[in-house]
Design goal:
alpha+beta; 3 domains; 7-stranded mixed β-sheet; binds adenosine-5'-diphosphate; binds magnesium ion
């Protein structure tokens, strides 16, 4: 029996448009012999719609309530007799779904919010659960968990609007230059390399405009290496690593999205066997420490002296044509279609494991 997969995209995130691009590829790669897709798009305002076909991805770059593609049906996610359904508000009819595939980056999609909704609806889903999603989104919490497991990451100071440090205090602890970044953003939004006291105040103000927590981080000079991981938490698999080579001073928003030549991508990365092993081992350890299930991309810095530092994790990495996550799997011998199938199967397996847990007290 074919499973019905709800591909969920869009949403109230600055990465709404990237989500549309990613979802287009996921929908196209879905194995139609095994799965029936249901396309659920969330508008920029937060309204849920079902779309009849993947034309939605070519018709609009972003879903807005004011300019909806034709045949968009307002829907709600709910449960009937404990089973998850998509309920059409106009037709007043329910349609059963088996599993959700959230392809939403950043706020509400990658931070545990939508994962919590799926759990409440008793709906199996692809990717990390509430805790790993939330912890992976907050770079400070992530660093504390990594430190606890002795996994190297850049030294940092936590700055808040209530307790900040001066430029002199930061350079005394972390050296110069240093980076500042909002704790819970993506796409390099609000990330700055600080080289002098002169631009510190304005850049810090910019970082604080996105978040109430900002990290000042020591500058790590090195290559930017990434590794794809998937699987249940107790048996994850790591791909061959890839490399991003920014042509800008660092991998900034402009280098990622504005400047077409902002970065070169090398998959697989040219590394020694020993370096590959080190990166993969650290990616797997990070995945386990962070409590990830399903998928995660782990990003690193590799210094000239061979030291490897974890920079960050992405629990719903990009799935666009140029995205590293599927490319690294492809280079490791797993094609896009089989990757999507495996990710869905892992989500279903995780749900079955959790469904066996007692929800009633049993005297023992
Ligand atoms: N400590 C650091 N040392 C050197 N470069 C950094 C450091 N932190 C961030 N960068 C640069 O900034 C980019 C974006 O930072 P990152 O922490 O990955 O944020 P985001 O989640 O927005 O991608 C990195 O890819 C890297 O180029
Ligand atoms: Mg990054």
């Amino acid at each position: 029996m074919k499973k019905t997969v709800a591909i969920v995209f869009g949403g109230r995130s600055s990465e709404h448009e990237i989500s549309m691009l990613s979802s287009r590829n996921v929908a196209a790669a879905l194995d139609k012999n095994k799965f029936d897709p249901v396309l659920l798009g969330i508008s920029k305002e937060g309204t849920w719609y079902e779309f009849p076909s993947d034309d939605v991805f070519s018709e609009v770059q972003a879903i807005t309530d004011a300019k909806l593609p034709k045949n968009a049906e307002p829907v709600a996610l709910m449960t009937q007799s404990g089973k998850p359904v998509v309920y059409s508000l106009n037709k007043k009819s329910a349609r059963k779904i088996d599993v959700a595939f959230p392809v939403m980056h950043g706020t509400f999609g990658e931070d545990g919010c939508i994962q919590g909704l799926f759990k409440m609806m008793n709906l199996p889903f692809v990717g990390c659960g509430v805790f790993a999603s939330a912890a992976g989104m907050d770079k400070e919490v992530m660093k504390r968990l990594l430190a606890d497991a002795h996994i190297p990451s850049a030294r940092y100071l936590l700055l808040t609007p209530y307790k900040s440090n001066s430029y002199t205090e930061i350079t005394a602890k972390l050296g110069s230059p240093f980076f500042i970044k909002p704790a819970s953003q993506g796409s390099s939004v609000g990330v700055h390399k600080i080289k002098s006291a002169a631009d510190f105040d304005s850049k810090l103000k910019d970082a604080f405009s996105y978040d109430l927590k900002v990290l000042a981080e020591e500058f790590i000079e090195g290559r930017e290496i990434e590794c794809s991981v998937m699987g249940l938490n107790h048996q994850p698999k790591a791909s061959l690593p890839g490399e991003v080579i920014p042509t800008h001073e660092f991998y900034s928003y402009d280098a990622k999205y504005i400047d077409e030549d902002g970065a070169a991508i090398k998959v697989p990365a040219i590394l020694t066997d020993e370096q590959i092993k080190k990166v993969q081992d650290l990616a797997l350890q990070t995945y386990q420490v962070m409590g990830c299930d399903g998928l995660t991309r782990v990003d690193f810095f590799l210094k000239k002296n061979g030291d490897v530092y974890v920079n960050e994790i992405n629990t719903i990495p990009g799935f666009t044509k140029i995205s590293m996550y599927p490319k690294m799997w492809e280079a490791s011998g797993l094609n896009y279609k089989d990757l999507i199938t495996q990710l869905i199967q892992i989500g279903l397996e995780k749900f079955q494991i959790e469904a066996k847990l007692n929800t009633n007290y049993a005297k023992n």
